[in-house]
Amino acid sequence: MSSVSPTLHSIVLKTNAVLSSPGVYYIPADSYLRFTLSSSLIAYDVRLFCDYHSTDFKRGAYHELSWSLTGDDRFAQILCTRPGPIHYHFEAKHLKGEGYVLVEPRLSNLHPNITADGIMCLSFLSKSLGKFEDWESRLAIAYHTNYNMIHFTPIQQLYKVSNSSYAISNHHVLNPLFGKDKTHEDIKELVDKMAHEWNILSITDLVYNHAGNDLALLEQHPDAAYNLINSPHLKPAFLLDAILMQFTRDVHDGKLEKIPAHIEKDVHLPLIRTYLLDEVLPLYALHEFYMIDVAKTLETFTQLIQQETPSSSIHDYDEEYAFRIDYASFDRFGARIDLQEARKIFYCADRTPAQACQALFDRLNYLNHMKRARVEAELVIAINNCLQSCEFHFFAPLGPHFSAISPRTPFVGNYFAYPEQRIFDTSPAEVEQAYKEKNRSFLERVMAHNGWVMHDNPLRNFAEDTHGPNVYFRRELNQWSDIVKLRFGQQEEDSPHLWAYMKEYTRLVATTFHGARLDNCHSTPLHVAQVSSMFDICENLFRLSSI
After folding, report:
1. CB atoms within 10 A of CB 86
2. Is position 247 within any domain?
3. 492 with 528: CB under 8 angstroms?
4. Of residues 523, 483, 477, 474, the one with CA closest to residue 236
5. CB neighbours of 320 closer than 8 A, spacing ≥ 6?
6. 62-115 confidence digits (pLDDT tens)
7. Are strands 201-206 and 515-518 parallel, antiparallel or unpaired?
8. What is the pTM of this model?
9. Strands, sheet with 542-545, edge to edge from the N-terminal-most edge strand
10. Beta strands per DSSP E along 138-288
11. In terms of domains, do 449 and 407 share one?
């Protein structure tokens, strides 16, 4: 702990610090953090909890803070000697609130002349630094121009197709461009030398949220991505993707008389819209993935209530209105209902079996009708989004100016990694056949790409939206087609191989550099971003993120 007297930082707990909009505060290490109550909370018995522990930190292990008095005011206080995040939450009858505090690392422990407010950082594209022997001479510009921190883009092996700096193929192996015999220890020696001789700290990226399409881990553990086995809600979106890839192939092969490969904005975009919405998509009846087979369900329900007595209550229209369908399998007409729940709600004391069946029949038909209308409306949104993407890539002044629709410059990009990378050779009919046969070897190799969604909630995992057509179906994702989104689940047990893999990756980074930048923070699940292994390795690791 520093010999300087601790400073005091105060947070006033307010009822408007709701769970959907928690506050975030930053304080230096070795500071007192004091919680006080706003006027709206003074009258209540407020219970305050936080997960700060000076040693043996464990995410999710909360303890209750005790209140002290100064005059008529209550306060709770902790001395924050361990850098890292703190989460607190409070409750007072029906009132709740929460927030986060980030205790900044002691950069003075890394270098005496650098403070968090005085960082001047220069980024280098690691893949462009060449052989490791040449790094020092190329990094020297940071020293000669008075920077005190260097940011290295990922130093790991990259996806061979795109060579994108953030499409990592193996998080544990260095980019072979640096030299096949080079190790993390070699880089650490240079990092330490720059710190001691140049007064420059070094950080790199931590890329948890996605990986290159050829990530070695996925060969043995495809469940570490969002595939059509663990995420069947993506099946309609993948079929739509295959339909759009087929459209690119048909245009490129000259099969569409009115739509040439060399398109004109005002002439052909309206034609493409009409062709897809009126001629192509109706052939595939995508709404059927969200439908329930009413006749089959009624037959089973009829057999059930013939062996049961009606419930003792009379029918309740509110309960009937709240009754919903389960779309878990996302097969055509594969939706289901809870038959016992349906019996309790629809087969009541004031209804005959025939009346109960009619009531359920009406409800299921209504739900099918509403879902179909929604799916068809969102297909219009999807095609409009496709046209906007096409307009940008082909005609926008700041776009890449594609010249013709082809597999290399498609109508729209693919939202999924395809089995054996057969993006334009996987027909919609082949996809339908795989769905029908429940072909696991095919379904588990279809993996959702990552990307970003304009104006979306960054705390929402858009790949897990199971309540209907999502961003993949609505074509709202600005996708990166060289990377797949990784699926951590809600806890380590949900994807143990991925968690273990990323913990080793974190260890390699935390023991090599002075700090780490969490890449793609806006799409990384919060509980993954909070992984504590890096803090256990080095509590003074400097941490930042991209938003």
Report:
1. 20
2. yes
3. no
4. 474
5. 345, 346, 359, 363
6. 999 999 987 778 999 999 988 878 889 999 988 888 888 888 877 766 677 777
7. parallel
8. 0.86
9. 121-124, 149-152, 201-206, 515-518, 542-545
10. 149-152, 156-158, 168-174, 201-206, 210-212
11. yes
Whether 2 is in a domain gets the answer: no
Would 3 be classed as within a structural domain? no
Cβ(24)–Cβ(87) below 8 Å: no
At which of 314, 339, 371 does a domain end? Answer: 371
87 beta partners: 100
Domain encompassing residue 172: 109-217+493-545
Q: 3-class DSSP state for residue 140?
A: helix
Nearest alpha-carbon partner for 43 in 15, 10, 76, 22 = 15
Can you state the angle between helices 353-395 and 294-305, rounded to 10 degrees?
Answer: 150
Label residue 406 by pLDDT band (50, 70, 90). very high
Last residue in a domain, options 323, 352, 371:
371
Classify residue 222: in a domain, yes or no: no
Task: Give residue for tokens 């990094």.
Answer: 139
Answer whether 110's CB lies under 8 Å from 139's CB. Answer: no
Clarify whether residues 402 and 475 are in a common domain: yes
Are 215 and 450 in contact by the 8 Å Cβ rule? The answer is: no
pLDDT at 53 (0 to 100): 81
Q: Identify whether residues 129 and 177 lie together within a single domain.
A: yes
Integer Cα distance of 459 and 436 in angstroms? 35
Residue 209: give its domain's CATH number: 3.20.20.80
Structure tokens at 377: 């409306």
